[in-house]
Structures are given as structure tokens and as C-alpha cells.
Amino acid sequence: MNATATGALLLCRADPETVRPLAHLLREPLLLTRAGQGWSVLVPEGKPWRTDGAGETAEPVDRVLGGWATALAVGSTWPVLALWWDADRAGYTLAAGFRRPVGYVWLADGTPAGEDEAMRTFAARLGLDPVLDVQALERLTRPDPDANGETRLRGLLAALTATGVTLPAGLTPGESADRLRGVAGVQPGVERVEWAGWRDAVRVELDAVESGRMGPWLRGPRARALAAAQLTAGVPLLLWGARRRSGGWAAAGALLLAQGALGLAYERARARRPAAGER
Questions:
Q1: Across the chain, what does the average pLDDT equal?
Q2: What domain range includes position 248?
Q3: How many domains does the chain contain in total?
Q4: What 3-state DSSP class applies to 89?
Q5: What CA–CA distance (Å, rounded) separates 12 from 68?
Q6: Single residue among 171, 192, 213 that ends a domain in this structure
Q7: Which of 21, 22, 70, 277 has CA 20 to 30 A from 259's CA?
């Protein structure tokens, strides 16, 4: 691994058209493209983990990506896997719904620095084979003088090929953020996801809900309860992230608030339509 390279990838177990509405709400410039059957990958265009112009230390790349993964996962029905690496470490964070994220870390030279149980939880949440795939993952937690952090992440991705993951050539753990951005930008069908304000975010979100297979079911007591839960969880998470100056966790709180508010508005709008048709 290049000692100066810092980079990150967000793998989402959903098609790009499903990922796009939520990715907009992260309020970060991202490139979105396919990553195999039923998977998409988001590549950051910027480098929010770098120091700013005032020389203040930015958040570590793992914390930034962990917050983004959590923000996407709590507003969706599909898991999000953040892969990250820098000069000292490499690792992943898997977020799925409201469950506690799970992750693992290796030092840059490949030395394991996580808990073995994380790999078993990782396999269970992604529906991997409890014997063969878990054995492959557990090998990544054992000492190996020939494996560095980049090799460990590649081994992790190899275990995911059974789920349909196929990263485009060049989107490789260990590459710099600039290299990843350049490779993603030339992929067929790549989309640029950029924040365009709350009005467009609402429109994109409602369009996605209307066209999705879950659209007809997002109304009634269950929808109201889910939206209320998102609002209740989003406020303290947003405040906690702001207090700790954690952009990733603040984004998770903001996304929860947005999802809850949109859920209530959508359910209310849907509830009015039959009455309008009866007039």
C-alpha cells in the first residue's frame, strides 16, 4: 500500500437508482456507479478527512466513512459497507438499519487489530455461507507476513463475490482518492450525486418512493410509527454529531430527520388522494 494514499469506497447492496435518492441527502459530492449484480459503489469526489485551510485536523477517514455508511443504512432497507485506508490502517464498517455497525481494522502492514466476532457478524448480516465464507474471513484475522492492509481488504472483497460484488477495474483498495475518482468518472453510466437543496431532495425522494415497489405500502400506522422513530432518533444523533464536530454522524442525524419528515409528509399526501378522487 502506498504509504501516502488515503482513500475510501461505499458499497451499497442496491442498484444505483435505489441508492441515488439517499446519496443526495448526504450533502457530499459523490460519484455513483454499478459494482456488480445488485450492488452500487459511491466514490467521494472530495477529501473531507484532510486538514482544512486553517490547519485544523479533520476527522479520520474511518470516522467520516462510518458516519456516511450509518446515515445511508438507517434510511434504507439495504446494508452499506464502507471500505477505507490511510497511511497507518485499513478497515471496513458495515451498517445495516438501526443495528449497531460492525467493523474490523488492520494496521498498514496487515497486522490484525480487531475482534474475530466482527467477522462472524459481518458474514451473518450479509447472508454469507456460515462455513466456507466464514472460514475465508477468519483467515483475514490471523497473522500473515505476506499480507498488508490492501491485501486484507481485497480478501474481504473476494469473499463478497458470492453476493454479486464486482468492483470496476481500478477501484482498488490502496489507491489514492484522486485515482479512485478518476477511475469512477469514466465508468459507463456513472452519475454525479451532488446536493441541490431541500426542494430537489424532497422531489427526488418522493419520486423514488412513488416508483419503488414499496411505494404502495408506505402509509398507515406502520409508516407513521417508522417516521416518528426516525425523527426521535435523528434529533439526538444530529446534536451529538454537531457537539463532537463529527460530520459523518451529524449527516446520519440529518438524514434520519429528513427521512422521518418526508415519511410523514408522503403518508399524509397519500392518505388524501383517495378522498380527492371521490369528489
A1: 83
A2: 196-278
A3: 2
A4: strand
A5: 11
A6: 192
A7: 277
User: Which residue in this structure is represented by grid cell 462472524?
Assistant: 120
Rounded-to-integer distance, Cα 122 and Cα 99, Å: 12
* Spatial distance between the Cα atoms of 267 and 29, rounded to a whole number of angstroms: 30
pTM of the shown model: 0.74
C-alpha–C-alpha distance, residues 15 and 144, integer Å = 35
Contact assessment for residue 191 and residue 20, using Cβ atoms and an 8 Å cutoff: yes
Distance in angstroms (rounded) separating the CA atoms of residues 18 and 32: 11
| Residue 1 forms part of a structural domain | no
In a domain, 264, yes or no: yes
In terms of domains, do 201 and 108 share one?
Answer: no
State the Cα–Cα distance between residues 45 and 190, nearest whole angstrom.
13
C-alpha cell at 72: 445511508
**2 in a structural domain:** no
Q: Residue 227: its pLDDT value, please?
A: 76
State whether 47 and 127 are in the same domain: yes
| Contact call for residues 257 and 230 (beta carbons, < 8 A) | yes
If you average pLDDT over residues 111-131, what whole number do you get?
Answer: 95
Asked whether residue 103 is assigned to any structural domain, the reply reads: yes
